Fold:
Amino acid sequence: MAQAKPATRLGSTPIDPVTASVIQGALESIAVEMGYKLMRMSYSSIIRESEDFGAALVDARVRQLCESRQSTPLQSGPIPGYVKGMNGLLAERAQTLNPGDVVMHNSAYHGASHGPDVAFIVPVFFKSRLVGYSVTTAHHLDIGASSPGSCGIVDSLDAYAEGLQFKALKVYDKGVLNVPLWQMVRDNIRASDLVVGDMEAQIAAARIGADRFLELIERYGLETVEAAGDALMDHSERLMRQAIDALPDGSYSALGHVDGFEDDPERRDLKIKVTVTIKGSDITVDLTGTDRQIDDRPLNMPLEGTVDCAIWLTVRSILLDSFVHGHIPQNSGLVRPITIIAPKGTLVNPNFPAPTIARFCPGNIVADTLMRALAGAVPRQVSAGVGNLKVIAYSGLREGGHWVHMDIHEGSYGGRYGKDGMDTVDTLYANTRNNPIEDIESHLPLRVLRYEIREGEAAPGQWRGGIGSVREVEFLEDGSFSIEGDGHMYAPWGFQGGHDGQTAGLRFHAKTGATVALPSMMPNKRCKLGDRLVLLGTCGGGYGDPLMREPDAVLSNVLDGFVTLSSAKDDYGVVITAAKTIDRAATAALRRDRPSP
Structure:
């Protein structure tokens, strides 16, 4: 059994809280500056618009000090793991870090989230002493895999088919560019100007972070900055432990399902089992009972880099809701009370060289299933079932060169105690932004014919489920696409009397008139000018008895097109007249005579 243990705690120099708070603000400002610099220098929309990147500072003991607020948890969360994996590989090769080095790293079996999420790590030296690391990560649009793009590579047989593996390679060695390595990268990826341009932006942003970190150390002194880091992590740990200690001790379990490959009985309906044990101020998340790894399909998830981040983010979001607790320093102290148990050789802790590139949607199932388990302990702090996402890689050839685009199609949240579910958003550890239509149509041979909220699909509940979107995209040239998604087979779960949500969908409309329903996982498919894709986003589950929903809220949803007239009556017990007003007497009678679920 593999076990991710809480971070070790070491002694620290005393520091007054005011100085620690000032240094905390400075560290966070550095990370934010790194993030903005990366966004503004990037070429691809996945970084510039969708913000699928990470930026963070890590101390010499490989503990995260801060992260960019613009970044997604699935990019910033793994950064200490990237650094740990890099150090392990360098040690195996008897290599050392030096001032001026820049290291490229993306190994999913050495801390990285998956191959397309490439980190550039700048070691920070103060008076010849290694004092930390400035790191940026980002999702790249192509990484040299067997088919175009860096998502939808769902037919990969192993890690080697998923693209180039950068295992702690020095792009700069003591300040000198490794020209052969850089040329090898250019020669083996599609849309190389775009991808390498993004990589160069990452390096520049990481160097800015290193410079600012040194300026902070020079201003306050190394001992003071290190003491502040210790104090901030201790503070974050105390907050997390207080939140866990307030929960009832016990074990809580839930089972989740991944669509997998609908046409293959051995690779579909994959199970994720989560058991949460709370004891005092410690919490253990045990994934025993999860299905074994798939040796030749990339739905496996790295324990370090994907599974751990899904768990940390879910626990932190539920127990330390920023709406209640305000701003909390994001650092490695938050994960100290959390222990993860993941059996080796399963979907959540695979053995090399099992492919992992499509780990994104299964990881969301881990987070959603963990939340369902925690609902037994904190029913008013969770949402009902969350609608998963879908990622489409569009590509084509133009004048002998590739164009590549990655589009994240949103899901939705389930209803929450006191609030309806959020509509058409990236969910859980994704937290990226949608891609503006104007940006897509300005740079790519694609036309977005429709982008709107699904009508009449909101899951009934005292607080309704969030609603997915509909996006219709037309090819203006011959090209291809591939799909990496989930949610076609299992609807998000309703909670405490709320109804289940709606499944996702995907339809291909050929210019010839033929229409075909497509699965949630599909390898690269060629298409012609005029062909269209229609994507339906998942709708989250409802929370609470629909008969308890305020009639005026039901009427408002009917007027907005979120709820149909028949659903208003049948599910909510609300009678709406032809004039679109509430018949309150008929509504009261209908609700009085109907049993609650």
Notes: The chain has a mean pLDDT of 94. The chain is about 30% helix and 25% strand. The radius of gyration is 24 Å.
